[in-house]
Amino acid sequence: MNHMPLLPALILSLGFAQPAAASSERAVPRTRSVAEVRATLASMPHGNVQRGKQLNQGLMCASCHGDDGVAPTQNWTSLAGQRATYSYKSLLDYQRGGRHENPRATLMQVAVKGMSRQDMADVAAYYASLPAKAAPAPRLDAAAHARAERLARRGDPTRLLTPCASCHGAAGQGGLNETPALAGQSVGSFVRTMRDYRTGRRITDANQGMRQFAERLTMQEIDELAAYYARMGKN
Amino acid sequence: MLNRRDFLKAGAGIALAAALPARAAAAAGHIVIIGGGVGGATAAKYLKLYNPALRVTVIETNRTYIRPYGSSEVLTGHVGMNDLNVSYDTLKSKYGVGFVFDTVVGFDPAKKQVRTAGRQTIAYDKLVVSPGISLQYQAIPGYSAAVAETRAPSGWIPGSQTALLTKQLQAMRPGGTFVIVAPPNPYRCPPGPYERAALVTEWMRKHNPSGKVLILDPKDSFVTDATMQLGWHRLYGYNIPNDYLSDMPAGVKNSGKPSPIEWVRAMDGGAPQSLDARTLTVMTKQGAVKADVLNVIPPMKAGKLAFDMGLTDASGFCPVDRRSFESSVHRDVFVIGDASIADAMPKSGFSANNQAKVTARAIVAQMAGRAPGEPVWENTCYALAGSDYGLYVADVFRLKDGKITRLPGERYLPLDASMAKIRLAAAYQQAWLKTFTEDCFA
Amino acid sequence: MGTLMKSLVFACAALAATLPSAHAAEPSGEAMAATCAGCHGTQGRLGTVEFVPLAGLSEDEFVRAMRDFKSGKRPSTLMSVVANGFTESEIRSMARYFAGVKPSPAQ
């Protein structure tokens, strides 16, 4: 993979080409309406997997997210099998300064600074083309597994919790629009994300939709769901 | 101030006013550390980590440490003077390190004790000396400590001179010249003078767009010189000297237009000969250079304490056994950090931190009657060519034939590095300021 | 748990000190790990996350990371320089050390 000739366009974006969408303003994070998110995704360029693979290396993404989209440690998020719409939207959120939940987000803002929308669509297409792999996770006993599976598949009407699967897919493969895949996500990343939704540190999802669910789950349930989805990827 | 003979005398034959027991504590032993900078603080922390039963006492003049690494960011207002302050509280509360805020004025290696200005006599089983550097102001005719405090600050040991230099930069006339006189080798923080030049240039683009930065250098090269100059070129239109141009990536071409940053090497007549503090003029072989703000980073030697204690050799630094950093002059005395002679290791905070750990392990081994293990050291200096433009030098060092040797191979940011890597290096530099301080002091 | 972990770390350190190493002059895992601490936290127990906290990392994760930095499969700023400074067996012994350290709660 390292011996492939670089595409001319890649050389440009590794150099000093100014990205069309780059903005240095430090926007106040705000949630987006469903219509806004749809409009963003409607204008998403068609992604080139091969170029995305090159960019994953050249733009240093692979350093934290893995050559094959599998994060080398719990410190980062795995992207293999992630829906392109979600990756694309996330990259845009970072570039627009909408993500400040922790120092990782700060690093991401730096990392995406020079990316064009085409670059974003390309890496997103590359990650979507990769198989999600099962991530290391604590083994759940039968009761814990049953609890997680119930929440994932049936939800909990007593707490107005819709099943995770209704948006994230029965196999954690992601769903409509930008709803992310969860299968194979590292436990660390899953738990951190849910915590950030709970506390309102992360609000860039449409209408802050995730907060209501994250708030109603206990930390134990979140840990169990994390292990449940981490093990869901391919071995 | 005591001369060296008085200093040694002051250490001998006094026990009356002892506030601490003159005999070292019986249990695991008493390690005394002079100097609470990066080297001393790290040694104290790691001694307690490696053997919590040891009694560890740091003798330090100042109650708060002012960190030198990253202190050029005060000039540009990226941080304030107060952001450089580092507290000793965690070393005390979390690790049980004892602190004596006092100044050492006497040393008796035979009795293994030191004496302070506050008339305490402190006995040790092992003594770690981490005195940092002393700035040789007088080495440049016309320069002095008094001139540095009032007219032409060095700001190389952070404090009042850093604040003065910041004020001078902000008050500089439009179109003025900020002259940096770079030091000869060896000196603390090898990329530091050039990073400072870069940050001041970046600041002036916004606040004094016709201002200039001029570096006068007694050397012909410096650590990270190629990558730093490439950064200056990209960010400020710096004209790269011909002998460096051939290694630069394709497409890098000098505009030939005057640039707001200029580096005059020794071979081009940049070596400073003398200076006139009144007119802020530096004399070089090329002639007189008039500055509007004059920042002189003078030659450096081991901290004064190392001289007073008789630990230095003719080089002005302290010879040590490289495996343990035990002084070649006195047994049971260890010299770490900028004051020590460490061969290929640069004089940097990262080096001092790594030397402190090697010494801490050697001391713990010695106290247990074991030979010290095989040492290994690392150094990483991140530097900025602009606030979003990071670069670095990194090395792993091993002991080879009694000398500290750099392993061969790549050590710099590649000249063809992508902008993503360069931006991340700048972000990592900022993160490192935090994580490094934590490893030394918390 | 904490005590068990500590005695485990101690046992590993003691083992490293007594066993002859493959390499004539190989520093202990703990000694090598100390060189990482300026960025990755004391004993790898980093309180922030820009760099990867190494405490509690599985041996395999650590070894794979260092190997990929060496080969360039995993791009880095300066980790390739650092990884190139250690032999395979040294990397293993560093990995054993970090795997035995309890992660910081802040991780």
Textual characterization of the structure:
The complex is a heterotrimer of chains A (235), B (442) and C (107). With 235 residues, chain A is mainly α. Chain A has two domains: 35-129, Orthogonal Bundle (Cytochrome Bc1 Complex, Chain D, domain 2); 142-230, Cytochrome Bc1 Complex, Chain D, domain 2 (Orthogonal Bundle). Chain A contains twelve helices and no strands. The radius of gyration of chain A is 18 Å and the shape is globular. Chain B is of the alpha/beta class. Chain B has two domains: 4-132 and 303-375, FAD/NAD(P)-binding domain (3-Layer(bba) Sandwich), CATH 3.50.50; 141-298, 3-Layer(bba) Sandwich (FAD/NAD(P)-binding domain), CATH 3.50.50.60. Helices cover 28% and strands 24% of the residues of chain B. Chain B is globular. Residues 1-23 of chain C have low confidence and may be disordered. Chain C is mainly alpha-helical and 107 residues long.
CATH class of chain C: Mainly Alpha
What are the low-pLDDT stretches of chain B, counting only 5+ consecutive residues below 50? 13-26
Task: Say which CATH homologous superfamily of chain C is assigned.
Answer: Cytochrome c-like domain
Class from helix and strand fractions of chain B: alpha/beta
Biggest beta-sheet profile of chain C: none
How far from one another are the termini of chain C?
A: 18 Å
What level of helicity do the residues of chain C show? 40-55%
Regions of chain C with pLDDT < 50 over 5+ consecutive residues? 1-23
How many individual domains of chain C?
A: 1
